[in-house]
Prior knowledge:
single chain, mainly alpha, 13 helices, 70% helix
Amino acid sequence: AAIFEVYYRMGSDKPLPRAKAMVNEPDPPTRAVGVRFVAKFEGPVALKGLHELVLDGSTLVRRAAVQAIADFARVDSVESLGAALNDVDKSVKVAAIRGLGRIQDTSVIRHLTFVVGDRDPEVKREALMALSGVHDPAVVPTLQMGLVDPSIVVRTAALRGMLESDPTNGRMYFQSALLWLPHDAIRDIAK
């Protein structure tokens, strides 16, 4: 992988044929490295193949594909990243959430709103943070739901999102959150 990175940084795609061959190897870690570098060397041209790998049998390959798709932050990848939200592996799901958040288009709202209902507080937190980056009034009801979550990390992410997405009402929520908001979270929000 290091040699591929050197060639990539030099602006050379000389190892591209080897990276493509690695994607078809039986070993999942090798395949994942291949996926990563095919995406780097080919750029958005690689998206069609990456979209197909979102449903691969290997968690490592799925995560590499989702992370590569996320790096491009393109609206035409919303459906593939949305499909990855159903992954059984949390790391794939979180990578898809972060990818959707990087797109910052209203087309991601329905996917992220769905995943805010996940049982895992980290997944919820990531989804709320991604939603807050959309900067659209349509995200406010979902952010408000996050304010009543039992998890303090989820509530804090929802509050941060409210302050970004709806500053007028966000200040009101912030005032009421001072009762439960930890001091370190106040410092984080102030940044």
